[in-house]
Amino acid sequence: MEDIYLESSDYTPRVVLNRTDNIIEFTGKSYPSNTFEFFDPIMKWLKEYIKISQDEVTVVKFNLIYINSSTNQVLFEIFDLFYEEKRENLKIIFFNDHDEDDYEEDELFEDLSEEFPDLDIQLVRG
Amino acid sequence: MNESQNINLEVKINNKIIFEMTDKIDHEKLIYTVNTIENVLLENSVKQSKIRSINELTIEILQNIINYAHTCTKKEYTSNFKIYYSTNNDEYILESTNIIAKSKKETILERANNVINLDKDELRKLLREKMRSKKDLHEFGAGLGFIVMARKASKNIEVSFEKYEADEDLLKFNLKLHV
Are B81 and B65 in contact (CB under 8 A)? Predict the structure, then answer.
């Protein structure tokens, strides 16, 4: 299984899918013209990865801004995949870089942690 | 998908136009618009959280216009998208007008009516239901745009339709959001 590394663009996130170190990262903006097409190879990689890495600790990091509603749907499906596989050794971290005096509910974090309560999901601010 | 429409884009702060563009709207122009709005708002010391809401709404509105351009045969029509801010109300208003196929009116109305008057918790629940059921998934997206817009907006979404000249198959679709 090969690692995947996609550099970010003005409208797509930096994606790190690292089998060697068990690191998964999504960073930046995500509003591709065809979101499902963009995420298709990523979903395929994750489906394969989640089955062969059951006994290993995996860290999944999200630091996303400006996401479209289709990206929202894709993230839900990624979490659903994690949830179905009942991965206990999965650490999911959301980063929110906003200043403390600029507090805003992190809707994505709130939605996903409520929908998938058995997953280990944390929010890191600043 | 190579279809596109002309669009007139305008950003006003206290009635002063600070960004204006009339051009074909496609994904490249959408990216340019999002980056420009970000820079304009940062220069005007707008908070990051507000910029994020405005730009995510801008993305939803412009991606919808691009998608609906595919259903519309009148390529010479110019769509409109405006963002304006008034210090009196301390709110941003995003307004768009574009042409749609008349056959899309019922779908748009149904999706808009489904979110009007729902509070934030009800919207969150509805979004989660839709994402789980994938009921409104379509060729160009997840069909979640109105729910996402309603969550970010500070007041109810306003939608209206107007006749487009004498063409029976087309309508003008107006959308207004407060944030």
Answer: yes
What value of ipTM does the predicted structure carry? 0.88
DSSP state string for B10-71: EEEETTEEEEEEEEEESHHHHHHHHHHHHHHHHHTT--HHHHHHHHHHHHHHHHHHHHHHTT
Collect all residues from B whose CB is shorter than 8 A from any CB in A.
1, 27, 30-31, 34-35, 47-49, 52-53, 55-56, 59-60, 63, 66, 124, 127-128, 131-132, 134, 137, 140-142, 144-145, 147-148, 151
Rounded to whole angstroms, how far apart are CA atoms B23 and B25? 6
CA Rg, chain B, in Å? Answer: 16
How many helices (H) and strands (E) would you count in chain A? 3, 6
Q: What are the distances in angstroms from CA B20 to CA B8, B41, B77? A: 7, 14, 17
Q: CA nearest B26 in A: which residue?
A: A33
Is CATH 3.30.565 what the domain over B5-178 is classified as, yes or no? Answer: yes
> Which residue from B minimizes the CA distance to A10?
B31
Task: Give A78's pLDDT tier (boundaries 50, 70, 90).
Answer: very high
Structural tokens at position B140: 């160009």
- Closest approach of chain A CAs to the CA of B53, in angstroms? 8
Task: Pull the structure tokens for residue B160.
Answer: 């209206």
DSSP letter string, A47-79: HHHHHH-TTS-EEEEEEEEEE-HHHHHHHHHHH
| Every domain of chain B and the residues it spans | 5-178
- The pLDDT tens digits for A9-65 are 999 999 999 999 999 999 999 999 999 999 999 999 999 999 898 888 999 999 998
Structure token pair of residue A44: 């395929």
The DSSP element (H or E) to which B120 belongs, if any, is helix B120-133
Q: Which of A11, A70, A115 faces B141 most closely, judged by CB atoms?
A: A70
